[in-house]
Amino acid sequence: MESDIASTTQNNSPKNQKNKLKNNGINPKYRLSKALRPFSLPVALITCSLGIVAGHTLQPINPLSTILVLIAGILLQAGVNLINDHADIKNPITLALLSPTDTSRIIYNYKLGWLCFIICAVIGLYLTYQTSLFLLALAFIGGLGALFYTTEPIHYKRRGLGVVLVFFLMGVFMVYGACFAVTGQHYTEAISISIPVSFLTSALLLANELRDYTSDRKEGLKTLTVRLGLKTGKILYWVLIFFSFVSLLLIDSDQPTWAAILIFIPAFMLSIVATHTTVTKPDLQGLPPTTGRLYLVFGISEIVLLMI
């Protein structure tokens, strides 16, 4: 869920030419380890885990279904990340900057991403057999959302809709879908449980857009941050983090208020220190991984809160 192609000027600079030779003509972002966007994988892990925990409050859960849901969620996130760079081949501006090795890496990652989708689909069919066709409908909608993030003719990232849609597709849908997959029941409270991490999911995507603001502008990729401007994008980033904590009040929990305070106030203060240090730097390369770590800590804290 990101793009960090450098501008033509940057790639033609002596420093970047030297780096390109050093990497044998391979842009590091297209290496599998980079294309997987490891910092974003906690999104699937946390959202699916929240859905499973929510389902556990309803009924005993089959351990096999639990494992399969977690695997499917991670594969879906990995698949989205791996096919993301394929849009660079379709963009004449970025295509001119790609070496033959870059192109082959992008195609390889794209095929690997589709393999993740296929395995995820097989798991989804099995879980649908165990529950109902409603799960298949959820999986179909989620799959289309993942596919068209950077795929034409929709490509909602360039339409400035990425931050909004991932709130639902990689947040609410993932939590609610995971809960239904392990229980076969509609649990409306799973939606309120999903809201806090959904805000942080949007913040994680926005962190990518903030980092890529300059290159996205030069490539004509009109993300939400490009449309709003860098300053407004940073403000929105903080708003999303703020509401991720505030929305915890929406959770219908029997736990006392002090439990939430003990868990989340320290996490909130730590996030302010970590993200403020990163977001105020001219170079925002560290913002996505910093936000990813915040997401992981926040998600684990919410899971603990629901379990105690």
In short:
With about 300 residues, this protein is mostly helical. The protein is built from 16 helices and no strands.
Q: Secondary-structure map with pairings?
A:
Elements: H1 8-11, H2 14-22, H3 32-35, H4 42-56, H5 63-84, H6 87-90, H7 92-95, H8 100-130, H9 133-147, H10 162-183, H11 189-211, H12 213-219, H13 224-228, H14 230-246, H15 257-279, H16 287-307
Helix pairs in contact: 4-5, 4-10, 4-11, 4-16, 5-8, 5-10, 8-9, 9-10, 10-11, 11-14, 11-16, 15-16
Name of the CATH first level: Mainly Alpha
How many β strands by DSSP? 0
Separation of termini?
A: 33 Å
Largest sheet: none
CATH topology tier name: Farnesyl Diphosphate Synthase
Shape: globular
Query: Helix share of residues?
Result: over 70%
Strand content of the residues, in percent? under 5%
Our Rg estimate from Cα atoms comes to: 20 Å
* Total number of helices: 16
Structural summary, described in words:
Residues 1-25 are annotated as: Disordered. Keywords: Membrane, Transferase, Transmembrane, Transmembrane helix. This is Prenyltransferase. By secondary structure, the chain is mainly α. It has one domain (25-307): Farnesyl Diphosphate Synthase, CATH 1.10.600. Helices cover 73% and strands 0% of the residues.
Main features:
single chain; Farnesyl Diphosphate Synthase; 16 helices; globular; Prenyltransferase; transmembrane helix; UbiA_prenyltransferase; transmembrane
